[in-house]
Amino acid sequence: MLRAMTSLRLPYLSSRLQGFGTTIFAEMTRLAIEHQALNLGQGFPDFDAPEAVKQAAQRAIAEGQNQYARSFGVPQLNQAIAAHQKQYRGLEYDPNAEVTVYSGATEAICAALQALCETGDEVVMFEPFYDSYRASVAMAGAVSRVVTLSPGKEGFGYSAAELEAAISGKTRLILLNTPHNPTGKVFSRAELEHIAELCRRHNLLAVTDEVYEHLVYDGEHICLASLPGMRERTVVISSAGKTFSCTGWKVGWTCAPPGLTRALRSAHQFITFATATPFQHAVAHALQLGDAYFNQLRSEYRARRDLLCDGLSDVGFQVIRPQGSYFVCADIRGLGFESGTQLCHILPRVAGVVAIPNAAFYLEPARGDALVRFAFCKTQSVLEQSVERLRGSIEKLRAEAHRAAAAAGAGA
Ligand code: PMP
Ligand code: GLN
């Protein structure tokens, strides 16, 4: 019998997803469009992928590469990923049994958590975290346990004791991100060795998100899987979006030993089945661009980092200089604000610039509300204009901060 309309259960959103709201990136990009502001919020380059890479995609379409791809990736891409991993990380993966292609790293993270976690398992991660982590953990029926990264003289750090304490009998895996969004932290060898030791000691899996692997300015990127005893228990995730300035293509991948890969593919085949075929061909081409491309990418990004960090410091933000990624976090209290969320909602209208409040990246938003994140994956002229707009709006911003503090005082 048909159910009566009145029996429809509300709210529609499952309890697993309640409380997550709309992603902060969509919200802030909407504000950027509304105020025609310079968008240093959502992390997408305002410049294009290399010409040869775009042409490779166009060629693939013209040559009829337009039907479903093999579920775990077109062979040329799986091979190119394995070759890249060997050349840059010294790790050998079998392209057929150990490499899988997804619709972006976001899908890879989601598939990994779906495939590897039982309901109630705990996932240890660092906060601030990329916002999809916590939602993907929740969708998998697992529970997030966080260790907080705090700004200090040497950049962002954490307490090793806090990390050890976050691990319990229910912990299934550690979800790591290096270079890290949003802090720009590049985990050091000593930190990674400790994480690896904990994984071995407690028999944990590791999932390491390395989408910014080629954007390291100070120190070196070390893949967790390259440490002793880690290859067999680690899922390495990366993606083409940042490395080849094509975030809209959504091509990501994992490298993991065969048993883990079989589990990942079980999830992937029922999430998206396969990823856009022509873009996979183009990314296979891109991964073979070689050292000259990666070196130039890094040096251009280093110049953008320096430009924005120096400009923001000059304007009155307290900048925590990132070692990697294309983000910089800045403390806003020097401008008279207490809340980064408040500042980020005022900034597009008053200054014509958009940033992301770090609060969105914490379990307890208040823990991160003194910080905001600016993206520097933008052309030099946009970065310069952004700094000039901020400089020109400083008095207005201070006045807004003053008004907000007075209103909060009156309301108290
Ligand atoms: N992980 C991190 C840390 C990210 O910053 C992002 C997106 N910017 C992703 C994963 C998602 O990557 P993709 O666009 O390939 O899904
Ligand atoms: N990863 C990008 C960022 O951190 C945005 C991704 C998204 O919009 N979901 O800004």
Summarize the structure in words.
With 412 residues, the protein is an alpha/beta fold. It folds into two domains: 21-43 and 292-411, Alpha-Beta Complex (Aspartate Aminotransferase, domain 1); 51-289, Type I PLP-dependent aspartate aminotransferase-like (Major domain) (Aspartate Aminotransferase, domain 2), CATH 3.40.640.10. 42% of the residues lie in helices and 15% in strands. It has 13 helices and 15 strands. Helix 4 (104-116) packs across helix 9, helix 11 crosses helix 13 (380-411) and helix 12 (340-350) crosses helix 13. The N and C termini lie far apart (56 Å). The mean pLDDT is 95.
- Low-confidence parts, pLDDT < 50 over ≥5 residues? none
CATH superfamily of the largest domain: Type I PLP-dependent aspartate aminotransferase-like (Major domain)
Helix content: 40-55%
Structural class: alpha/beta
Q: Output the radius of gyration.
A: 22 Å
